[in-house]
Amino acid sequence: MKHEWRKHEKELYAPKETPQLLSVPRQKFFMIKGRGNPNDEDFSDRIGVLYSLSYAVRMMPKSGFVPNGHFEYTVYPLEGIWEECDTSDKSTFSYTIMMRQPDFVTEDVVKKAFEIASVKKPNPLLKEAYYDEIEEGLSVQVLHIGDYDDEPESFEKIITYMKENKLQKRGKTHREIYLSDARKVERNKLKTILRYMVK
């Protein structure tokens, strides 16, 4: 049976517009760091690198390489880790964008994905991409529906929830998971998961 993250991992990817507490397990990612305005072309180019690597893994069996434990799955959504900064000046934004990979991915699969991507979609930014595993652990998340610029309203919901439940934020970053394709969906209908790590 095909693994579809929207159906099979609802706790992680189907939150409500009210905050919820959850434990995020260790996950595997292709990642790339960046700095600057996310509306600039450089940001889109970095996203392209992640998609080329992710689809290299997804289509690997068709190239004759079947990873151990392979199963059919839907490619995971784009995510971003954003550093605390002056939100009024997007040119100062510092971020790591990433795409989760299925559990069967190993270092050998990663190496093969880079080989495939470098041939099918050569990109100088490929050398900046890397693979890593992250375990966020205890977190609070909420679904934000609307323009990215209106996210502070939803973050306030998280902050209020944290105060009510005597939770504190861990670190100086927040996570965003993009459930909508910003190129195809009206800005007031964009769906984004917002998440703080807490203790």
Number of DSSP helices? 5
How much helix is in the residues? 25-40%
The top level CATH class name: Alpha Beta
Q: Output the radius of gyration.
A: 17 Å
From the 3D structure, determine the CATH topology. Answer: Multidrug-efflux Transporter 1 Regulator Bmrr, Chain A
CATH superfamily: Regulatory factor, effector binding domain
Characterize the largest beta sheet: strand count, sense, and whether it forms a barrel: 6 strands, antiparallel, barrel
Low-confidence stretches: none
Q: Give the beta-strand count.
A: 6
Strand content range? 25-35%
How is this structure best described in words?
This protein is globular. By secondary structure, the chain is α+β, with helices and mostly antiparallel strands. Helix 3 crosses helix 4 (107-120). Helices cover 27% and strands 30% of the residues. The chain starts with a helix and ends with a strand. It has helices at 5-8, 10-13, 41-58, 107-120, 151-164, and strands spanning 20-35, 78-83, 94-101, 130-145, 173-178, 191-197. The chain has a six-stranded antiparallel beta barrel with strand order 1-3-2-5-6-4. The chain has a single domain (5-197), classed as Multidrug-efflux Transporter 1 Regulator Bmrr, Chain A (Alpha-Beta Barrel), CATH 3.20.80.10.
In short:
With 199 residues, the protein is α+β, with helices and mostly antiparallel strands.
Which descriptors would you attach to this protein?
globular; 6 strands; 27% helix; 199 residues; six-stranded antiparallel beta barrel
